[in-house]
Amino acid sequence: MVTTSARADAAVVVRGLTKHYGDKRAVDGLDLDVARGECVAVLGPNGAGKTTTVEVLEGYRRRDGGEVAVLGQDPGTAGRDWRTHVGIVLQSADDAAEATVGELVRQFARYYPDPRDPAEVVAAVGLQDRERTRVRRLSGGQRRRLDVALGIVGRPELLFLDEPTTGFDPQARHEFWDLVHRLRDEGTTVLLTTHYLEEAERLADRVVVVAAGRVVGSGTPAALGGRAARSAVVRWVEDGAARELTTDAPTRVVAELAARWADRGLDEVPGLEVRRPTLEDVYLRMIGEAAGTTDGLPAATGATDAVRVGARVGVPA
Ligand SMILES: Nc1ncnc2c1ncn2[C@@H]1O[C@H](COP(=O)(O)OP(=O)(O)OP(=O)(O)O)[C@@H](O)[C@H]1O
């Protein structure tokens, strides 16, 4: 049940959301909370139900079941005023191909009661040199930037970003991340979907992993799936052979190795490497477990779990 108090505090409350397309359960009992001012990244494999969920929250798609409150209202019935508080960046927007970038952003600004300055928005997404360019002449990445401009020009309280940086070059992606940080600093709540784990790590206060229409994990990017507490793998080369040790005390293992090499009059331990599971490792494990197939994960992921020696200290000679 989405209670009245939950509605007052939260930007988004979803309980037991379901959506079917024929026999296909695209969303299958999904729960989600986004606090006001928070940035939440929804991760999940192709077809997990991310876009369907976001479209329900945006009021673009009818749900089959469950309860949804977005800025305190049901997006299925909310009116025009609600829409002016919500910014939407679709995966592929219908553009007015013959309009110029500047014309389109100014036109969108007129739909909102308190819009941002269109010229500033165009500059914020890095399209100032394209202000007079017709939309149909933009590159794929430039069109995505225009989509983002159209999503933020209304100064939304809550911004939905569905795979916002697909097709961006690395520099544009970094600029976009800076832009999202600025929006966050202004208090904008952000819900984004992405396939880029680095993007989730850079932007999100919290990551939600969705597989087969359900949430299979959530947490801060640093702690997701107990990542901060998980063991590290220390690797080095000794007597011409690769050595590996999984430990909860990597600093002590490295100190012991260093001491052993110092005894031999050497400064450097050959091939020394300390690796903790990355967000990608944890993510792949979660969706693998959700699919019932943890086989086939990248070798590095398997290696992290290969040898569990707990807090053992003492490097095998
Ligand atoms: N309009 C539709 N009609 C029929 N099936 C659909 C429709 N939209 C989505 N689906 C199906 O519903 C499931 C969830 O799709 P959805 O687009 O929500 O996933 P997604 O997590 O956003 O995927 P991606 O990462 O590829 O964007 C998929 O199996 C998809 O094929």
From TrEMBL:
Pfam families: ABC_tran. It comes from Cellulomonas marina. PANTHER family: ABC TRANSPORTER ATP-BINDING PROTEIN. This is ABC-2 type transport system ATP-binding protein. It is a peripheral membrane protein. The keyword Membrane applies. SMART domains: AAA. GO terms for cellular component: plasma membrane. Residues 12-237 form the ABC transporter domain. GO terms for biological process: response to antibiotic. Keywords: Antibiotic resistance, ATP-binding, Cell membrane, Membrane, Nucleotide-binding, Translocase, Transport. InterPro entries: AAA+_ATPase, ABC_transporter-like_ATP-bd, ABC_transporter-like_CS, ABC_transporter_ATP-binding, P-loop_NTPase. It comes from the Bacteria. GO terms for molecular function: ATP binding; ATP hydrolysis activity. PROSITE patterns: ABC_TRANSPORTER_1, ABC_TRANSPORTER_2. It is found in: Cell membrane.
